[in-house]
Amino acid sequence: MSHGPAQDKPQVIYLDNNATTRVAPEVLEEMLPFLSDYYGNPSSMHSFGGKVGGKINQARERVAAALSCDPREIVFTSCGTESDNTALHSAVSARPDKRHIVTTRVEHPAVLNYVKLLEQQGYSVTWLPVDKHGRLDLEHVREAIRADTAVVSVMWANNESGTIFPVREIGAMCREKGVPFHTDAVQAVGKIPVNLKELPCDYLALSGHKIHAPKGIGALYVRKGMLFKPFMIGGHQERGRRGGTENAASIIGLGKAMELAAAGIQDENTRVKALRDRLEKGLIGVIPEALINGDPVNRLPNTLSIAFKYIEGEAMLLLLDQFGICASSGSACTSGSLEPSHVLRAMGVPFTYAHGSLRFSLSRYTTEAEIDTVVRELPKIVARLRAMSPFSADSETEGQHKAVAACAVERSTE
Ligand SMILES: *Cc1c(COP(=O)(O)O)cnc(C)c1O
């Protein structure tokens, strides 16, 4: 078998945890019996199935405990995307006479594209702007909420910039005006404390694979009393809120992962944050013409988005890959497009920087030695690429013209 001795395992420095995370060994261990011996259907009358049902209940209790809510307020879904879609679907279906939605320009596609679909269907949408640090202006939010607003949807923390939004204040505004509030908390859970007793929100989405559970499992919190409209129509599972036989092993894994996430908040905000800061200082202090994308203060403790003038993020990723270093670039697609991501564009990151953006996202498994490898190698990579950059200072104008032309072509084929 290929997954045998340690030397056969991929040797990577994995700094792409906002994209996905490794499954925690504790999570896997808890899941395994439900992928082998305990395969009963949780809805069956026999005790063999009941054993699985019992573990699903325990998982629901664990998720609820980690969020400080009632287990009955948790619906298991297939992913963060389904949770976001379901929340928006529920909110707009509950108030069909309300035809206005408030959201931001920097949402994850799970919200962004669902709201775009609603916009095509005739909803009017207020797309809230962000400043250069990716921050929202609370006054803009207040002004945007109207009598016919069906839902306000604002992510808790941005996956690219790491900027944290003032969801408590936004939730309070919504409550005051009687408008449902949804937050995409996929990047917040496990990184900053989430307490639903103190957060006035009505729907909250989370995803397993961003917190060391497997891919393909998510959860949606629906505050008691909020109208719910199933997205997946079928059996009576999830108390009629989501048809389909439960993804038992993954639900059980998510329960464990949520327990670990809650217990790890302290480590995340001390040790992991210190490693992120070490990375940041090691790069910003050494590489000229580099800047940080994101709020310098209110930022996820594990995230560093950093932009280097005149070079391509993709080229840096390829060279980092030779050292087994995994990170992300700030581009929207991997097809060689020159279009920076919608988040960096919304932040107004200067053109010559936006293409040279890299995102490093750390986890509880990140070590100091790994960070030091990046701090040692990246300055050399940047220097090497700049030496051969078509965007070098002399040919800046020409390079920009070429890139603008490429973007225009790209847009016309969207
Ligand atoms: C990853 C992510 C999602 C989508 O979660 P999936 O489980 O991959 O569908 C939604 N929102 C944010 C902020 C994310 O980072």
Structure description:
- The protein has 414 residues and is of the alpha/beta class.
- It folds into two domains: 25-263, Type I PLP-dependent aspartate aminotransferase-like (Major domain) (Aspartate Aminotransferase, domain 2, 3-Layer(aba) Sandwich); 265-412, Aspartate Aminotransferase, domain 1 (Alpha-Beta Complex).
- 41% of the residues lie in helices and 13% in strands.
- The protein has helices spanning 25-31, 47-67, 80-94, 109-120, 138-144, 167-177, 237-240, 248-263, 265-284, 313-321, 342-346, 351-354, 368-387, 396-412; strands at 13-14, 74-77, 100-104, 124-128, 149-153, 181-184, 203-207, 218-222, 290-293, 303-308, 325-326, 328-329, 357-361.
- Helix 10 (313-321) crosses helix 13 (368-387).
- Mean pLDDT is 92; it is low at 394-414.
- The structure holds pyridoxal-5'-phosphate (PLP).
- GO terms for molecular function: cysteine desulfurase activity; iron-sulfur cluster binding; metal ion binding; pyridoxal phosphate binding.
- Residues 13-373 form the Aminotransferase class V domain.
- It holds the Pfam family Aminotran_5.
Query: What count of helical segments does DSSP give?
Result: 14
Which molecules other than protein and nucleic acid are bound?
Answer: pyridoxal-5'-phosphate
Q: Report the count of strand segments.
A: 13
CATH H-level homologous superfamily name of the largest domain = Type I PLP-dependent aspartate aminotransferase-like (Major domain)
Which series of helices and strands comes N to C?
EHHEHEHEHEHEEEHHHEEHEEHHEHH
Overall, the morphology is globular
Number of domains: 2
Approximate strand percentage:
5-15%
CATH class of the largest domain: Alpha Beta
CATH fold topology of the largest domain:
Aspartate Aminotransferase, domain 2
Largest sheet: 7 strands, mixed
Gyration radius from CA atoms, angstroms: 22 Å
Structural class call reads alpha/beta
Examine the secondary-structure arrangement and name the CATH architecture of the largest domain. 3-Layer(aba) Sandwich
Strands in their spatial order, largest beta sheet: 2-8-7-6-5-3-4
Summed over residues and divided by their number, the pLDDT gives a mean of 92
Quaternary state, please? single chain
Helix proportion of residues, in percent? Answer: 40-55%
